[in-house]
Design goal:
CATH topology of the largest domain: Rossmann fold
Shape: globular
CATH superfamily of the largest domain: P-loop containing nucleotide triphosphate hydrolases
Structural class: alpha/beta
Number of strands: 13
Low-confidence stretches: 222-231
Number of helices: 10
Mean pLDDT: 87
CATH architecture of the largest domain: 3-Layer(aba) Sandwich
């Protein structure tokens, strides 16, 4: 049962090495402090034990959808206590809106499927932010461009994406009609977990319904007055697709706060990192310094102004994050797995 939900040798080894004897399960939905868990004996409801509530340093250590946990309450019980959380292999995290705290959106994810609508909400800068979250969390990104039936200047957009994100895995589709859905297949690997993320109204729930083969997830049209999506997904929920892949649906994100270090941002802007190698000063800020290769490229038109502005903004947020001691410990642990994993080399 658990292997259908992503349990593999990695988690079995972690479980064995920790000497855990309580039954394991995976969080398939989280509603505040209440959870739905898939355990070996089947699904059950669960809540946090007092042990976790008192030992967690902050909310980032509490279980989220995708976490593997071990349960107290008896094998096959309909209700249990989450007694502990297995170390996360990867994590999708962002800076929590309105604070300097981290928010864990999903755990133990192999692929981040970044869904972008080809309408008035289309934003390359937002994609760059999601890519930074993927890189920092040790997650492989996959770009999905939805609503091709509504797109104006589709060929120009495809050229832009190929130029800004060379070599990126991507699919272009209309989830409403089903056209191009097969392009998403490369991201859906049996036994692996992907998470659908994007802004409200991007069409994530419609895509998921297509993948599940049924209208299980409620959908709603975008508002006509401002083109913004209506929240139809209210919780992060995990599903097993007919082909064997595991997928997590998430509510639309209006803010994609950077939770990365400078290297994580630079990885998304590799062209700017290469340019900076030609700067006169090693600690160049790319703002006012003479002999700045980045500013020279911006002046000549070699570097796009939008991309430069987003790089500077994201880099500033990353520097702010690095002042937090808590950020350092979380980032170090995620990168430890990232560097050891053959998949991400």
């Amino acid at each position: 049962m658990l292997t259908q939900y992503g349990w593999n040798n990695h988690f079995q080894n972690v479980y064995n090495e920790a000497g855990i004897v309580l039954p394991a399960g995976r969080i398939i939905a989280a509603h505040g402090a209440q959870f739905r868990v898939m355990a070996a004996g089947g699904p059950c409801t669960a809540e946090l034990s007092g042990r976790i509530m008192h030992t967690a340093a902050d909310a980032a250590e509490l279980p989220v959808t995708g976490d593997w946990v071990y349960l107290a309450g008896g094998e096959g019980a309909s209700h249990a206590l989450v007694y502990g959380v297995l170390p996360r292999k990867t994590a999708l995290v962002r800076k929590k809106p309105g604070s300097h705290a981290v928010q864990v959106l999903a755990a133990n994810v192999d692929t981040l499927v970044i869904v972008t609508a080809l309408d008035d909400t289309y934003s390359v800068s937002r994609i760059e932010r999601f890519l930074s979250l993927a890189r920092e969390g040790g997650i492989e990104p996959f770009l999905v461009f939805n609503k091709t039936d509504l797109a104006e200047g589709l060929d120009a957009k495809k050229e832009e994406i190929a130029r800004v994100f060379p070599g990126a895995r991507a699919a272009w589709m209309s989830a409403v009609s089903g056209g191009g859905m097969e392009g998403l297949g490369a991201a859906l690997v049996p036994g692996e977990t992907c998470v659908l993320a994007g802004s409200s109204g991007a069409g994530k729930s419609t895509i998921l319904n297509r993948l599940l083969g049924d209208e299980l997830i409620p959908t709603a049209p975008v508002r006509e007055d401002d083109g913004k999506g209506r929240h139809t997904t209210t919780a992060r929920e995990l599903f097993v697709l007919p082909g064997g892949a595991v997928i997590i649906d998430t509510p639309g994100l209006r803010e994609v706060g950077i939770w990365a270090d400078a290297d994580g941002v630079d990885d998304v802007f590799d062209d700017i990192r290469r340019l900076s190698g030609g700067c006169r000063f090693g600690d160049c800020t790319h703002t006012v310094e003479p002999g700045c290769a980045v500013l020279d490229a911006l002046s000549s038109g070699e570097l796009d102004g939008r991309r430069y502005a987003n790089y500077m903004k994201m880099s500033g947020e990353a520097r702010e994050n690095q002042r937090s001691p808590r950020w350092k410990s979380i980032s170090k642990e995620i990168k430890r797995f990232y560097e050891k994993s053959d998949k991400y080399r």
